[in-house]
Write a structure and sequence with these properties.
Aspartate Aminotransferase, domain 1; 13 helices; alpha/beta; 2 domains; 15% strand
């Protein structure tokens, strides 16, 4: 059989998690919490699930839920949206896939900033388009000169991600100013903004494309209830797009999933009025600080974590091994699972850096830290 994705295999997240499970290692690799959701959300599940809410929702999503999302965006970013600007998706990954399939045509080019999440490139390739992988700078922020030099008449889309996975860095106002300048020079260029960790930021406030009026008609944003509400298994998120782009996205969405799980939509439509972004930030900041404090006495070197629930560390004072070998050794010999940075790069660039997920209960974090400090 002729493969449409000949260079794509099982993701590192799947393989590392399987190895962690097989060996009994503490899984700080894959990005999912191991603690329960908010009790108010659980109460809402129990209350709503007994109602008549088990048939199809509208294809674009439950209208009350989209109204609640519109209010959340207004309260958070002071952007006014109609519900027709919002699409409920089966997780952020489906939102990314659907957007790219709708926007990008054969032989066009899409710029991806490395290190990057692995779901970006596959839909580009399935369009018959070309991905242009450009490295971020040493601070894991965009190299705007390099990006500008890579744009040509074939460039259709620039994918951005802030807060950034895997580094945990947040974009600055300077970066958004540079993005706007770039878009003014290239009127056909669009932006896909992955903001799934938008409510998990710390000292530096998250800056969003929603905050810049110039970007409203040139950008699509993707968000995740799974990440925000620590219910990753629900696989539900949402996408925001201007009318002309949303029109094309809906054409793809209706044949990809038609509509997202109705029960989760009805639950979230009742829960969102009780959602407090401040509590999410406080929850994860406490866990970030716990993990950072604990590992500070180890030989791992902490990198800045401004957002997400990932802590990146450099192990160059421990080993000269490449990061993939180091991670497998960490699992097999120390029973701790992490993700190597090199797998996020097209050229597998190795900076002796790995990523830990601290979205775990305190007992798990203390146990992992005890081991990490002995390495």
């Amino acid at each position: 059989m002729h493969s449409k994705l000949p260079n794509v295999g099982i993701s590192i997240f799947t393989s590392i998690s399987k190895l962690a499970n097989d060996t009994g290692a503490i899984n700080l690799a894959q990005g999912f919490p191991n603690f329960k959701a908010d009790q108010e959300l659980i109460n809402t599940i129990e209350r709503v699930s007994s109602k008549n809410v088990h048939q199809y929702c509208p294809m674009q999503g439950n209208e009350i839920l989209r109204e609640q999302i519109s209010k959340l965006i207004k309260d958070t970013y002071n952007r006014t949206l109609g519900i027709n600007n919002i699409l409920i998706t089966a997780g952020a990954t489906q939102g990314v896939f659907t957007c790219i399939q709708a926007i990008v045509k054969e032989k066009e080019e899409v710029i991806i900033l490395d290190p990057s999440y692995d779901c970006y490139e596959a839909p580009v390739l399935l369009c018959g388009a070309k991905s242009i992988r450009i490295p971020l700078n040493e601070q894991y922020l965009p190299d705007w000169d390099l990006i500008a030099k890579s744009i040509n008449e074939k460039t259709r889309l620039l994918i951005i991600n802030t807060p950034h996975n895997p580094s945990g860095k947040n974009w600055t106002k300077k970066d958004f100013d540079a993005l706007i300048t770039l878009l003014k020079k290239h009127p056909k260029l669009l932006v896909l903004s992955d903001e799934v960790y938008e409510f998990i930021t710390y000292e530096k406030k998250h800056l969003s494309i929603h905050s810049y009026s110039f970007l409203f008609n040139r950008a699509v944003s993707v968000s995740s209830f799974g990440k925000t509400l620590h219910v990753t298994g629900w696989k539900i998120g949402y996408l925001v797009a201007p009318p002309e782009i949303m029109k094309e996205i809906l054409k793809v969405h209706q044949y990809l999933v038609f509509c997202v799980n109705s029960l989760s939509q009805h639950i979230l439509s009742e829960y969102l009025p009780h959602f407090d972004p401040k509590k999410i930030r406080e929850l994860y900041q406490a866990k970030r600080d716990l993990f950072a404090s604990g590992i500070s006495s180890s030989r791992f070197r902490l990198l800045p974590c401004e957002g997400t629930y990932f802590q990146s560390v450099c192990y160059d004072q421990i080993s000269s091994e490449n990061d993939l070998d180091f991670v497998y050794k960490l699992i097999l010999h120390n029973k701790i699972a992490a993700i190597p940075f090199s797998v996020f790069n097209a050229n597998n660039a190795d900076s002796k850096t790995i990523r830990f997920c601290f979205a775990k209960d305190d007992q798990t974090l203390f146990k992992a830290l005890e081991t990490l400090c002995k390495i």
